[in-house]
Specification:
The chain is of the alpha+beta class. Strands 4-3-2-1-5-6 form a six-stranded mixed beta sheet. It has helices spanning 2-19, 29-36, 59-68, 80-90, 105-112, 127-133, 137-157, 167-180, 242-261, 268-281; strands at residues 23-26, 43-48, 54-57, 74-76, 95-98, 120-123, 185-186, 191-194, 215-220, 222-224, 227-228, 231-236, 293-295, 302-306, 319-322, 325-328, 332-335, 338-347, 350-354, 363-364. The protein folds into two domains: 2-131, Creatine Amidinohydrolase, Chain A, domain 1; 134-364, Alpha-Beta Complex (Creatine Amidinohydrolase), CATH 3.90.230. Bound molecules: zinc ion (2 copies). One zinc ion binds at residues 230, 294, 321, 323, 337. One zinc ion (ZN) is lined by residues 219, 230, 232, 337.
């Protein structure tokens, strides 16, 4: 898909020019991948505001770069970043924009020391992250596939959620199922939180065995083609108690309100409030302690952040999660999370198109 990457570089190039920089040095791995198609743990891109871009990577990735980025000149260097900064000097491009959110102090010092301090280093800002937020249809297809695998894997392990099975065993079975179904890897470390552990939003699965009367929260996702799915369901082991049904219902209603508010043009703070207000109205305001959602794509957490006090506007073709929860310390908790794409008029349930489609009703196992 060299044309896609070329048009992405053109959009980024215009932003570099608007900044008044001679070139940008792109060093964040996912940003290099987004602009070139090369997935590498050691690659960088020199993107001049006027002139030909240059990709650099080490010999381990040289063949892959030649295959995946045939339209880009390639520099094979172990120290890709420094080599490109020297190239900027050689081309008389001293005003070099760098990714301040990614470059360490140590690496910044190395760049600043080149050519007796001849480079003028200016922060690029989150230019590429911004471009990455709105996805093209090819990206959404990869994300939809990652979400489909996630749902299938979840259904495949439901049978193993029964008394005596441990959180860890369940998490391993889930990740194995995702790989078997075609995932490159899990998108992140799966969360399986049972009984009182369910009150910890990011509990690490341990040796606790499921017991009758537990709520079990499973937060998982598959990675496919570089794109990350993210889904959470809370299920009941045996007949749930009244309070368990209640917090599940409150969370489900809050999620529906959040999804309904996730329209093109909506302010992210308002989307968060739509869900948060429902939880607060039910008396559990103190028990929903995290943000409502986040963008997903080449990273599992990326822009936009949908949270209390956040600002920003949702746009069409932005995939996000909506993931309210209610956590009762010492007792347990519920979280329901889906990955959705913001669309104008996507369906009956609301404007957002769900990519994870497992039922949101409380499953009693
Ligand atoms: Zn999640
Ligand atoms: Zn999430």
């Amino acid at each position: 898909m060299p044309e896609i990457h070329q048009s992405r570089r053109e959009l980024a190039r215009r932003r570099v020019a608007a900044l008044g920089a001679d070139a940008a040095l792109i060093t964040a791995g996912v940003n290099v991948r987004y602009l070139t198609g090369l997935a590498s743990s050691n690659a960088a891109l020199l993107l001049p505001s006027d002139g030909e871009p240059l990709l650099a990577t080490d010999s381990r990735y040289a063949g892959t770069a030649a295959r995946d980025c045939p339209d880009l000149p390639l520099l094979v260097e172990r120290e890709a970043e420094l080599a490109l900064a020297r190239e900027a000097l050689r081309r008389r491009m001293p005003a070099l924009a760098f990714e301040a959110q990614e470059v360490t102090v140590e690496r910044h010092q190395a760049l600043a020391g080149l050519g007796d301090g001849a480079l003028r280093l200016v922060p690029l800002g989150r230019v590429v992250e911004d471009l990455r937020m709105v996805k093209d249809e090819a990206e959404l297809e990869l994300l939809a596939k990652a979400c489909a695998i996630t749902g299938e894997a979840f259904l495949a392990v439901l049978g193993s959620i029964r008394p005596g099975v441990t959180e860890r065993e369940c998490a391993i079975a889930l990740e194995r199922a995702m790989i078997d179904l075609g995932a490159e890897a899990p998108a992140f470390d799966s969360i399986v939180a049972s009984g009182p552990n369910g009150a910890i939003p990011h509990h690490v699965p341990g040796t606790r065995a499921f017991e009758p009367g537990d709520l079990v929260t499973i937060d998982c996702g598959a990675r496919f083609g570089g794109y990350h799915a993210d889904m959470t369901r809370t299920v009941a082991v045996g007949e749930p108690a009244g309070w368990q049904r209640e917090i599940h219902e409150v969370t489900r209603e809050a999620q529906a309100a959040g999804i309904a508010a996730a329209r093109p043009g909506a302010d992210v703070g308002d989307v968060d409030a739509a869900a948060r207000d429902r939880i607060a109205a039910a008396g559990y305001g103190e028990n929903f302690s995290h943000g409502l959602g986040h963008g997903v794509g080449l990273q599992v957490h990326e822009a936009p952040t949908i949270g209390y006090g956040r600002t920003g506007t949702l746009r069409e073709r932005v995939p996000i999660t909506i993931e309210p929860g209610v956590y009762l310390p010492g007792l347990g908790g519920v979280r329901i999370e889906d990955t959705l794409v913001v669309r104008a008029g996507a369906g009956a349930a609301g404007p957002a198109q769900p990519l994870t489609t497992i039922t949101r009703e409380l499953l009693v196992l």
